[in-house]
Amino acid sequence: MPNPPHHANTHTRRTVLKSTTVAAASTALLPDAASGAASPAAANPGDVVRVTLSVNGRSRVVDVEPRVTLLDALRERLGLTGTKKGCDRGECGACTVLVDGERIKSCLTLAVMRRGSEITTVEGLADGDRLHPVQAAFIRHDAFQCGGCTSGQIMSAVACVREGHTGSEAEIREWMSGNLCRCACYQNIVAAVADAAREVRR
Ligand code: FES
Ligand code: FES
Question: I need a surface site. Which of 47, 117, 132, 148 has the fewest CB within 10 A?
């Protein structure tokens, strides 16, 4: 589910997992689009489902239990550790990725539910050696300290800029409020997002 702004997100990990368990179980029954390998038995808890995910423009096959979150599939199955696990319960935004261009908290969605979607992680932003304008702006504005929240902030900022929610500092703060920073770099993050928005509009 989309994560911005924070106050608009009334879903908790409990409610999301409750609602998605049913969907995941039925989704797990569907044959994988690429392999056609899944069977009804794969819906049993503890069984493994073969899922093809499109990540950063590449087709990736993972074998996961239906309960595995997209976050864990990315980090632990595909080695894409740029996406961070902070709270693992939908509160911090460290795990933010883009799914079909929309920012979501990857700890609140299941991998089996993201078949057929285009997933973008922080590893997929740069164009070769050329950083995405948001990445470059975060460096210019020193918009991080420990870096724990940074990839989530950057992914959310990419969407925030694209959505056009950068008209003022207050608007940026509002639409980035789903991403928390324990180091309190907010001033620099807001400046970086505003700068990146100007860069993109140029
Ligand atoms: S790790 Fe997903 S919101 Fe905190
Ligand atoms: S830079 Fe440390 S949590 Fe944001």
Answer: 47
